[in-house]
């Protein structure tokens, strides 16, 4: 059907030929990234799988990392995400970084989730739930050393340490902090100050007789710019794990060798030539100035292709960059493929990823929206099928699959 040779362009098409739009998730790259990061960190890695694994698919990604590398830890934002992991058979340690809301404490206990405590008021509730169940819950206290977000203020931290003494069913398992701007070289002193404050809090807890097992500070930007000071004995990594933190890392250090895991594709569903002066799409925001070959692809803001990409973004077709023309609508987007000689129905348009030598990175795609790559992949909605590619020779849309034998440990 297609006349440009997509095989030669390296359009891997891990999808079923029956899919018209899909995100391909390259598990071999995920594995390489994980292994490189684990070596670079020199300490255990908490694989951040919150927000549907940054759009890569919560359960397939976590199951893969548990089965293939026996991931040290998983990090999620919400209790619901932690419960979903346990129900899917994840048995490795899970930390809920956003803690729980009142009423969810029984789920924390029942599903053996480690949790933070964004306020001292959560302590008695969790203690009671754990005591009722006859279980012990691992607690990681986040200290606010400068981000001003979920962490405990110095007063709250002191209060929680004091009140923990009366909570025999809560175990202080970790002390953590989160960097506000480890990606900004001009804020390096601020980050070093965060590290110092965290170290002080760790000393404070130890002086009070606590022996937290995990000390963790670094996110991707922290790992990139602040090793070894920020290594602690655990690092929490999302962006670099998925190979997409390029725009969230300090430019003062060379980029790491991690590779993007996700690419986003759709097939040309419709193709027509219209005369000059033809308005296209809602609001008639684009009017052709030449005879124009218009390709319509089934991706829109209902899939997470943001409407702000209208008349701004680009895609790759037959290895060439072509512009999005007219408004991105909920379900479809138009491309100007006039300059693509052999374009045909069914050709693949790549919005994030490579065709041959040409690439649109998630960072470039996000820059069009004034955003960062993390938001671009995380915004992909449930309607986009995720196709998992573990090795060049096999694939299974939507499902889990085994890694190549050589990838097993
Ligand atoms: C999301 C998150 C991380 C991971 O950040 P990346 O920049 O994606 O590596 C680490 N720690 C906390 C508290 C987070 O919320």
Automatic annotation (TrEMBL):
Pathway(s) where this gene product acts: Amino-acid biosynthesis; D-alanine biosynthesis; D-alanine from L-alanine: step 1/1
Required cofactor(s): pyridoxal 5'-phosphate
Residues reported in the UniProt entry to bind substrate: 149, 330
The UniProt record lists the keyword Isomerase: yes
Catalytic activity: L-alanine = D-alanine
Entry's family note: Belongs to the alanine racemase family.
Name used for this protein in its record: Alanine racemase
The species this protein was found in: Chloracidobacterium sp. N
